[in-house]
Amino acid sequence: MTVSSWNDLRTQAQASGARTILVNGMLSGSGTIEVTANKTIRGVGASSGVSGTTLNIEDMQPANVIIQNLNIRGVPGGDAIQIENATHIWIDHNTMSSTIEDDVDFYDGMIDITHAGDYITVSWNIVRDHWKTSLVGHSDGNAGEDEGHLRITYHHNWFDRTFERSPRVRFGETVHVFNNYYTNVNNNSASYAIASTMDAGVLVEGNVFENVQQACWSASGYADSDPGRLVARNNSLTNSGPCEVNGTVAAVPYGYTAENVNTVKASVTSSAGAGRI
Fold first, then answer.
1. Full domain range(s) for residue 32
2. Per the CB 3.0–4.6 Å rule, which of 7, 96, 212, 252 could disulfide with 240?
3. What is the tally of helices (H) and strands (E) in the chain?
């Protein structure tokens, strides 16, 4: 089913039942689109997408939702993709961007995953020109709901000029961050790529960091959050601050083969983002 207006996208995304929704063109609208279970929302070509809209995926186990091949713009005062208490979601091959404003809170998150979201993969996306990229776990006081959940994988994404939260994790284990490319995360002395806090367990593997103020926080905590655990292996850092490690992390619950870090930059820059599936 192809949609070419924001209202039609909202109607189809919120309808019951399984369907694939093909987005044709850039669709602009304000407010929230509630994406219901068993939906694939996929852009047509390289230049289709949504602007001014929060795609909300909430209270579904499993959700079985795919968001793919879209150009997604930041939402002033809100999240572009908001996942709460939902499982089995794939965010893939999107190009996501906003603008760097003086007010870090002008936009909220690009992909925020909270309230025990689980079994989520964020892959082959470009996220560019954004302050607060991807929050995992919304507050330090939510351990009761979040512990044992927030199992999330980030791989082969390009984070460029994303000045924090790529991702910032509370409680989740294991959050697997591998074969991503980080560039120009250096707006100021507080800029960083990855943070593990509140006893989260994060595996950071085979990533490339170039011009990143601080690759990872863990043992130091971050802001007012307590330390998390973080294991780092086979990463490449150029003109970048260290990836702080702390403790051990549980094994990921799947088989995989990480790409050699020496080829990650070429793979990600040639294949990530909308129009490349």
1. 2-271
2. 212
3. 3, 24
In which element (H, E) is residue 91 found? strand 81-92
Phi, psi of 186 (to 5 degrees): -155, 40
CA distance 187 to 222: 17
Quote the DSSP letter at residue 225: B
Q: Do 39 and 13 touch, CB atoms closer than 8 A?
A: yes
Catalytic positions are: 165
Q: What is the pLDDT at residue 105?
A: 79
Q: State the pLDDT at residue 100.
A: 78
> What is the predicted pLDDT for the residue at 210?
99
The CA–CA distances, whole Å, from 168 to 164, 260, 265 equal 8, 24, 22
Per the structure, the count of domains in the chain is 1
Amino acid identity of residue 244, one-letter, is E
CA neighbor of 226 nearest in space, from 156, 144, 139: 139
Evaluate the CA torsion angle 46, 50, 51, 55 in order and state its sign.
negative
Quick one: pLDDT at residue 106? 81
Read off the CATH number of the domain in which 163 is found. Answer: 2.160.20.10
Task: Name every residue whose Cβ is closer than 8 Å to that of residue 8 and which is 6 or more positions away in sequence.
Answer: none
